[in-house]
What does this fold into?
Amino acid sequence: MLPIAVLVYPLPVSLTRAALTPLPPPAGAAAALALLWLLICAPGDAGCRLLTVADLFDRVIRHSGRIHSLATALYEKHFPPRDNELGKSARKCHTSGMLTPNGKEYAQKIPREELTHLILKLLQAWKEPLSHFNQHIEHYQELPDDSLSKAKQISNMVHELKTGVEKVTEKMQSMGIISNSLNGMASSEATGLSISNEANMMSDSDFIHCFRRDSNKVQSYLKILKCRIMPENSC
Amino acid sequence: MKQKLISSVQIILLLALTAVGLTGEYSPNSCYFDKNHTNPWTTYIIVMTMNEIIGSNSSDPQYVDVTSMVQPDSPVILSLETKTSASIMSLWAKWSPPPLPDSVAQFFIIFPVHFLFQTIPVEVQTQYKVIRLHAGVKYVVQVCCMLDLGEWSEWNSERCIQILICEWIISPPEKPTIIKCRSPEKETFTCWWKPGSDGGHPTNYTLLYSKEGEQEVYECPDYRTAGPNSCYFNKKYTSFWIIYNITVRATNEMGSNISDPHYVDVTYIVQPDPPVNITLELKKPINRKPYLVLTWSPPPLADVRSGWLTLEYELRLKPEGEEWEAIFIGQQTQYKMFSLNPGKKYVVQIHCKPDHHGSWSEWSSEKYIQIPNDFRLKDMIVWIIMGVLSSLTCLIMSCTMVLKGYRMIAFILPPVPGPKIKGIDTHLLETGKSEELLSALGCHGFLPTSDYEELLIEYLKVEDSEDQQLMPSHDNSHPSKNAKMTPKETDSDSGRGSCDSPSLLSEKCRESRPLPSTLQTQDVRDVQANKGGKSSWETQCIASEQKTLLFNSESKKSSTWPAAQLPNNQLPMFAYHSTVDAYKITWSTTNVNIAPVLVGNEEKHQSQYSITETPPMCIIQGIK
It folds into this structure.
């Protein structure tokens, strides 16, 4: 596939899709690989089409929806909260310290870059706790097999989602929709590590509750971001 | 009573200034009568006299009835308390009676309720319980006592004391409950609660909430917008992805009560309004069946454009009068529906819900569409032609059935053929056409017909005196015939060709054919005239006998042959049913039997014979 990417890249004129804006000058191999991810067929085929940002967004939104559904299913079925625990203010999610918009207006007001960055930060924050959770529930006797497999799936799915969002971000950056601010990305890695330790202290029920909430946040932010960037596509 | 008493005792009381009560109690201007001096059954007349140096003066006499003067002290109220049991409030009043030894006292309680005085007579007791107190009502309780001396029917005295004033019967309110919290567009939300019983007193409700992770408690920002017993949180106060802890407090004068806490995360309580602008359009493309296109819009409050709230829709429809069928549509706002039944009226409703956790909205208002009947002209023509043809066919069939019904039936269901003997037709037998029958059997001119008896008789006669009788008869007849016949008569014992054999019989019958007409007339005359011989007799075949026999049996006349004259038992043979049998038997027996029989009858039956047929005759020899 690489030769194709190399072939295509120097000839931006051949890309006749109207949705694609003219590509900026390449940023090296990374950009080439990014483009690679966007090609799903060899450009001579009749059905060949490039994935647009809208398509990518749809995919990641759908993916995040699936994650949320899984989390909800687990939450309701196997880790339902006991009533007296609900009000416990001691119950805190390890991501509670992150400043995230808690309403529509805030989500619409903050800059796109920040919103994107926030999404990635959230996803990063859950990476490690989920892997710990995976190991933990191996020994969980009460879960039936299908729920166990579902729970294990979650960490994979979150990883995929993060990859997808990264791709979308890069695409947007390459298209000039959002500015390149890579420094934000670096800091997210650091914060992610520090707060993930707290996650290990949570009970299973709290863990799933927090995760469910955060997956909903990610989904909502992605939707808002999409409709901000491309308001005409089914918004 | 009183009269009695008055008349009994009279006491004059002299009161001096220094007079002292007999028991030692002293109060100025009073006189005390102790127990010994008090008799309740008497009336005292009391006169006061004042003696002074200059003179004396006495008062008017005062009639005193002790019992009517009785005025007990008021009772002493000990306690008054309200008790609540099983949500019924009751009031317990306890008092102690006044010091009245050896007397019967009655107490009653006066209860002014609002402005209505209610007196409740109470027997001898010292406590009373009042039930059914109304909350929020002012009660005053009084206990009074009266003496009732049994016989005395009138209350003598009455004394009450007001025990209590202004004791409110009220209680603190019951715990309210929070019913539900809902957000219609994921931007604001409302909570509703249900009050408990308010204890009669106006109760204040306050909604308090706190947010997850915060200690501070806030009060509801808006009690009015969403109606009574509700709290509306507008955009400013609505936050997502945090849990609200909501409680409602009810307060009245007596106290307050707080509901159970209700935890809510606004993200998950979204229940949108139903979709709007539902349009149904029937599209009729050429050469294809019509289909229905439904379009609708999301509810006006829901902000779908920003992606904040994503709605999923579900449609349900049914032909009128049948069951609903639900179709999940997803996020699109239009739907095409094929395969609808033509001629039916469909009812359609749509509702929506947020794509992640939330509740379905109410169903939208019903929309109707009538699917037009789908008939093309071509189909109709075909049906009409078919209908006409089939009706014509039916008409023709019914006509043929009516007109030729039986034949048709016979054609369709032919009659079962009965058994049939070859050569013999039963109809011929029935109708008496023995000629035909015999011809069918191969025997022509065998039997004589109606005048057989006469002929037979003649024939027999001829037998007795063969030559003589024959001759005179033959004089009149054709001599040729006689010539023919004569030689045959000479031999009576030899085996003449009798009519046993059908072949011989037929020969003879043929020979004798031309004879009949003339001979018959002659025979009649001969019979009447004398019993002379008749030449023709011999030619007569026994077949004529047979015929007569048959005739007898067939026509069912009473036997012309008197049974008494029959010398033997051969007569019964006349009654044979089958022709064949009759033939056989008569053939066998006539040679012997017939003659005597026949003779006897001639006299009787002379006039009866009518010549209707001309029986063929043949010579039978050997017959006596």
